[in-house]
Amino acid sequence: MNQLRYHYKEIMADLADSEILSDIFSQLLGKKVTYVKKSTNLSEKIRQSNYGLC
Q1: Which residues, in sequence order, are CB contacts of 19 under 8 Å at separation 6+?
Q2: 13: how many CB neighbours lie within 10 A of its CB?
Q3: Residues in CB range of 22: below 8 A, 6 or more apart
Q4: pTM for this one?
Q5: N- to C-terminal Cα distance for the chain?
Q6: Other CB atoms closer than 10 Å to residue 16's CB: what's the count?
Q7: What single-letter DSSP state applies at residue 52?
Q8: pLDDT, tens digit (0-9, with 9 covering 90-100), for 1-54
């Protein structure tokens, strides 16, 4: 179970570091959109947590 939790947290942290929301919005709207992140260290918080949700 700990392996699963580790990989889940890593995936969530990678998503937090990515620009996936900007990419999704850009594809939906058909023009370049930049999503401004509310937190600059979310991936760090996710990696330090016991679970992937902070």
Answers
A1: 35
A2: 19
A3: 33, 34, 35
A4: 0.79
A5: 19
A6: 19
A7: S
A8: 689 899 999 999 999 999 999 999 999 999 999 999 999 999 999 999 987 665
CA distance 48 to 44: 6
Q: Minimal CA–CA distance to 24: which of 33, 14, 16?
A: 33
Q: What is the DSSP letter of 35?
A: P
Quick check: 25 and 33 in contact, CB under 8 A? yes
What's the gap between Cα 37 and its chain centre? 10
Give the amino acid at 41: N
- How far apart CA 24 and CA 44 sit, in angstroms, is 23
